[in-house]
Write a structure and sequence with these properties.
Alpha-Beta Plaits; 6 strands; alpha+beta; 3 helices; about 25% helix; about 40% strand
């Protein structure tokens, strides 16, 4: 059985993410197999807030070089979660 904590990995705390918080939008690193409905239910269960919408983006892996060898970072899924009016995620 997959739990809400398996779907939502971390809250992404970047400059872009902090700028979006003024618009009640939060960035999350989520499981690649999760869909929007599962992400919405997981966020509502974990943070006890009401979600208005969820947008997802698959971030492709980047090509990296270590000395003479080439490799790449793994691709991951990012979710932009918009909360309903008056809702806020308390990050402490």
């Amino acid at each position: 059985m997959i739990t809400s904590y398996d779907i939502v990995n971390t809250l992404v705390r970047t400059e872009k993410g902090l700028d979006l918080e003024a618009q009640r939008k939060y960035l999350f690193h989520v499981a690649s197999s999760a869909n929007k409905i599962e992400i919405k239910k997981a966020i509502e269960e974990i943070y006890k807030v009401k979600v208005a919408s969820v947008n997802t983006i698959t971030v492709p892996g980047k090509r990296k070089r270590v000395r003479q060898e080439f490799g790449h970072t793994t691709a991951w899924k990012k979710a932009v979660v918009t909360l309903k009016e008056g809702q806020k995620i308390d990050i402490t």
